[in-house]
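Teaching assistant's notes for section 4

Start the section by putting this record on the projector. Ask students to predict, before seeing the second block, whether Rhodanese domain-containing protein will look compact or extended. Collect guesses on the board.
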Amino acid sequence: MNATLFHKMAGICFYPSCLSSSSNLGTCWLVLKTHNARAVPGKLPVIRRRLTINAEVKYVNAETAKELVEGDGYAVLDVRDKTQFERAHIKSCHHVPLFVENKDNDPGTIIKRTLHNNFSGLFFGLPFTKPNPEFVQSVKSQFPPESKLLVVCQEGLRSAAAAEKLENAGFLDVACITSGLQTVKSGTFDSVGSTELQDAGKAGLVTIQGKISTVLGTILVFAYLFVTFFPEQAEKLFQFAPTG
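Reveal the predicted structure now:
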């Protein structure tokens, strides 16, 4: 029996046929013929199987990270801000900051910048920053998606966030140092800068006044965060503050 199906309905003939190849993708065509032998092609929907590759960020310690760089050809991507990067960074690394200095001059930003500079900026030497809108595009301009990347920051938080962004952007082989460069012992990597990699996050009055400044600075940082995320409650508290 001929495998081609033939069916007549309201004077129209249906000839479905499938064109296939060695792949698992195929296209089905529906040929419509009227009694005057005029053919009208049309498409039938075909369910296609899709191959999905799920990437997963690898979290490694400093020793394993060194092996990835020296033995497996991973490129180092430093996502810290400019100030920490200049204090110390891994030799021959690539620098694309996840956060950049916030120079906006709207009233809300000016207030936040002032609070930041007087608290966490003063005590910990942290710059006032905002997310880098060009981060993913900047990385893509330097690396193809199949690149092996070791993403680093000082504490491990920014590198984890950056790695997730890169994974979502199509990078398939991304690793991070758990807890960041602060866990890297001296001599693990060849570095450039005025201090050790593990100390690049230390700045401000904390480095001068020791534990007292650390405790006081921590309190002020929490105060700054409270004002930032709960401005209405902070304003009410300020109303109860004694005035001269």
